[in-house]
Specification:
Elements (H helix, E strand, L loop, with lengths): L8 H16 L2 H7 L9 H4 L6 E6 L2 E12 L10 E7 L9 E7 L3 E10 L7 E7 L2
Antiparallel strand pairs: 1-2, 1-4, 2-3, 3-6, 4-5, 5-6
Amino acid sequence: MNGAAPVSRRVFLGGATAVAVLGAAPSSLRNVVTPRRKCLLKRSTFMPLRGTTFRMTGVGDDVDVTLAEVNDLLPRQAGDEHRFALVFLPPSGHAGSQGIYTFRHRDIGAVALFVAPVGRGVDRPRYEAVINRL
């Protein structure tokens, strides 16, 4: 033996089954299960995109929104890559609801986020997504 631990029959068969199922899946599903790009949910991904437009779709909505802010969460650790909030501005008069939306941007592709409207009572509500990956 080369010093490697032996693989049990159960582990081998489980891995072989997963490979067979994934191999039979449509390519669109394989891309979801085995993404080819780095994790997008980092502060540094969104910082250069402030002021740019995202297409927000889901829960009956399909609207362009602007990424207005990338904020620290409390307690503050400035620049924390895994704990931050995104604030999106919808067009005037847009009244959406909380839910999971897909946000598409030409530079990063698509990412699904749970957002909730905040700041009701002002001229237009904003949508906030909180990312806390600790």
